[in-house]
Amino acid sequence: xEQLVESGGGSxxxxxxxxxxxxxxxxxxxxxxxxxxxxxxxxxxxWIACIDSNSNTGYADSVKGRFAISxxxxxxxxxxxxxxxxxxxxxxxxxAGSRYPASCSGYEIVYDYWGQGxxxxxxx
Length: 124
Description:
Radius of gyration: 13 Å
Structural class: mainly beta
Largest sheet: 7 strands, mixed
Shape: globular
Number of helices: 0
Strand content: over 45%
Number of strands: 11
């Protein structure tokens, strides 16, 4: 059974950095696509970044140039390096994975598996 477990969230000051990790198990990691989303209370879940099996990446405009998605196929682990954090980056962050090979996408429907989320707080 597929399982995704996020870690690395926490509290950071404005301008600081965090690195989120998402460990996948029971899942064909290398040939599929993965993504990060985030959500704040009262708002819809927002796509942040994606990476496909060829390591092609995509980013939302809100994080482009500040966040970097990567993955380690040997460790079945997805990462999100977040730099220059802003108060508006505070949210619950979720990792997601597609069941089948797919292009990097910001559409939730592409992703079949989801983690439970890790909280990021940014304080001034």
